[in-house]
Amino acid sequence: MVENKNKDQNTEQKILEAAKAVFLERGLDGARMQDIADKAGINKALLHYYFRSKDKLFDVIFLEAAARFLPQLGELFGSDLPLFEKIEKFVHTYIDLLQENPHLPLFVLNEMQKVDGKAFFEKLWKGKKPAVHILAKQIDQAVKEGLIRPIRPVHLLLNIVSMSIFPFVARPIVKMGWGVDDTQFRGLMEERKKVVVQFVLDSIRK
Amino acid sequence: MVENKNKDQNTEQKILEAAKAVFLERGLDGARMQDIADKAGINKALLHYYFRSKDKLFDVIFLEAAARFLPQLGELFGSDLPLFEKIEKFVHTYIDLLQENPHLPLFVLNEMQKVDGKAFFEKLWKGKKPAVHILAKQIDQAVKEGLIRPIRPVHLLLNIVSMSIFPFVARPIVKMGWGVDDTQFRGLMEERKKVVVQFVLDSIRK
DNA sequence: GTCTATAACAGGATAGAC
DNA sequence: GTCTATCCTGTTATAGAC
Fold first, then answer.
1. Is B131 on the interface with A (CB under 8 A)?
2. B27: left (phi over 0), alpha (psi -120 to 50) or beta
3. pLDDT band at B4 (very low <50, low <70, confident <90, very high)
4. Class of domain B70-204
5. What would the 3-class secondary structure string for B121-139 be?
6. Between the ranges A2-16, B54-68, B106-120, where is the mean pLDDT highest?
7. Which fold is adopted by the domain B5-65?
8. How far is the C-alpha of A9 from the C-alpha of A7, rounded, in Å?
9. Which of A59, A180, B63, B166 would be A184's cystine partner, CB 3.0–4.6 Å?
10. B63 touches chain A (CB under 8 A)
11. What whole-number distance in Å separates Cα of residue B46 and Cα of residue B37?
């Protein structure tokens, strides 16, 4: 249980990678254990040997995906950067993340809806819930100081997050509606790093 | 085939309503014919009598949902309203739509990813593809006239659409992250109608 | 740990009576 | 048109040999 960790690690790692790929693309209901086994280069029985059941395996993947997608930002929100820099850093970080993990947001959003108000969130941010209130205070403060136009923190935050994430979620529509291929789409998202930041600052800055 | 339309209409209608509810909440893979039958107050066999197969039934629902979600805007994009009013109307229309159909966007986005570059879009906008290029021209024009700050039409459009739709897609996260219940969420989205329009105008207007 | 073979079951689809 | 009963395929899960 300690000695053979290398062997385990290898297979277990292969399974996790395969499962991640399949689940993220097809979702819990759409994924097939057979596909995961194939992609991992093993057989179904071994999946159960390692993870007992499909649901158990899914939980591992989902939790990790959600953790990547969501509270990575806790630190950023809570940091003591000036507001404008915080916004810039947020947008860049998030768009970079999604460039590398295009299926991430839709997967998480989708599966999250099925569990909804569950105690799932507790498990997700164990104790250290994203410090969204710190950012909120910072925004309120900036308004009070007359540094930015009046806006409720929720809305400003929602705006920034929306503009950063949504295009990836709507990828097929963007591609069809605007007639771009994958490469062009990538370029477009790259552009957005600057565009979104500029857009936000233009809006809130007096 | 003409005489008994009333009877048919009733059952068929019940089925369609039930199917819509179940499919929108669970997706194609997650939906169970049994659940649809139950919700419609009939039995499985009758579903097949009316719609032959699960896939066929799904196609009806999906196409209608996509049609509601997407190209309803064609008219708006193509209209001859001034830019600022067009933006305002768009945001209000869309948020109203989603207030009444909260599951719509995630459902469409999600299922759309599975078909992706398919000839599906052809079927969707039969001939009358949303007149997105008209809006694009209008934006370019406004930039050239110095009416608004320079911005590429794709990005402006993406920004507006993102801010209008994304919060509904991320509903569970918003609710948990900000600690609001359904009623408060509704109020928040209602607020956004004005907030988003204001935000956009503040950003682009010189 | 890893495999093959098979059990166990869920869920979509059909037959046939009414 | 609507129902009950049943079939049948695909998929998760387990048994047991190596």
1. no
2. left
3. very low
4. mainly alpha
5. HHHHCCCCCCCHHHHHHHH
6. B54-68
7. Arc Repressor Mutant, subunit A (1.10.10)
8. 5
9. A180
10. no
11. 8
Q: Is the CB of B18 under 7 A from strand C?
A: no
Q: Which nucleotide is nearest to B10 (CA to C1')?
A: D1
Distance in angstroms: CA B45, C1' D4: 10
Q: Is B161:A165 a contact under the CB 8 Å cutoff?
A: no
- Residue to substitute from B163, B189, B200, interface A, most A β-carbons within 10 A: B163
Q: Are B158 and A174 in contact (CB under 8 A)?
A: yes
Q: pLDDT (tens digit, 9 = 90+) per residue, B164-195?
A: 999 999 999 999 889 999 999 999 999 999 99
Chain region(s) in chain A for CATH 1.10.10.60: 5-65
Confidence of residue A180 (pLDDT cuts 50, 70, 90): very high
Nearest protein residue to nucleotide D2 (CA to C1' distance) is B46
CB contact under 8 A, A151 and B200: no
Rounded CA–C1' distance between B45 and D7, in angstroms: 13
The label of the residue with tokens 């050239």 reads: B144
Report CB contact under 8 Å: A132, B178: yes
CA distances from B14 to A121, A149, B18, B63, B175 (A): 36, 50, 6, 18, 32
H and E: helices and strands count for chain B? 12, 0
Banded pLDDT at A35 (limits 50, 70, 90): very high
How would residue B6 be classed by pLDDT, with cut points 50, 70 and 90? very low
